[in-house]
Amino acid sequence: MADAEIGVIGGSGFYSFLDDVTEITVDTPYGSPSDSLFLGEVAGRQVAFLPRHGRGHHLPPHRINYRANLWALRSVGVRQVLGPCAVGGLRPEYGPGTLLVPDQVVDRTKTRAQTYFDGVPLPDGSIPRVFHLPFADPYCPAARTAALAAARGRNWDAVDGGTLVVIEGPRFSSRAESRWHAGQGWSVVGMTGHPEAALARELGLCYASLTLVTDLDAGAETGDGVSHHDVLEVFGKNVGRLREVLFDAVGALPATGERTCGCAQVHDGWELGIELP
Ligand SMILES: [Zn+2]
Fold first, then answer.
1. Which residues does the record give as substrate binding sites (predicted)?
2. Is 20 among the catalytic positions?
């Protein structure tokens, strides 16, 4: 029997108040995930929490082993993943405290392993075939709907849709970069949403991002630019609220076997060359 059916990749603030959390360590053919998985029950569902940056937040966004993280979640039975993350707002109306559930993503990262299907043999000798992922709509529609309904239910008027641009970091954008991102019509900027969404799709997992705006990005504000201190302060103020929305969204996700979104059928007709966990 699976240990969990739903995964949440986010900070320790999301699971640290749960009763009866079981910590398990999971290894993967891609190395170790960011930390242990923390298994607990939310809204009658079995959930695996994974601190994206490791406990104590020691991993910067470009050092996170995204492949190991998603693989580890799938290996304990997870088939639907919610990925809350902190972002900067690229429009004045998306100020601190805005919750935006994106429907598009732009990859501006540089160094991250972003596919399982790169032809490199796994430790067991199996060789992933080259596989070109359909990614026109990067997020699971059912998971997005659950997240938006959960926010509404908590009187948080979440923004439905928008484009998350993911930068390499760990530095924030310059004003010119930020104005360019805004000029493209993109909505929010973060550092972790990619390749998380793409890898989830490759594993046939449902995935949705819940982005919490912690600051206006450098091109959209008139002060001294973004500081890490501001980000932490706004995130800290909203983490309790975001936890409530996440937990309600967990309860609103369909049962694993009753999904109609198509995320699990992404490999149909393809010879993968490897066995997914
Ligand atoms: Zn789905």
1. 191, 215-217
2. no
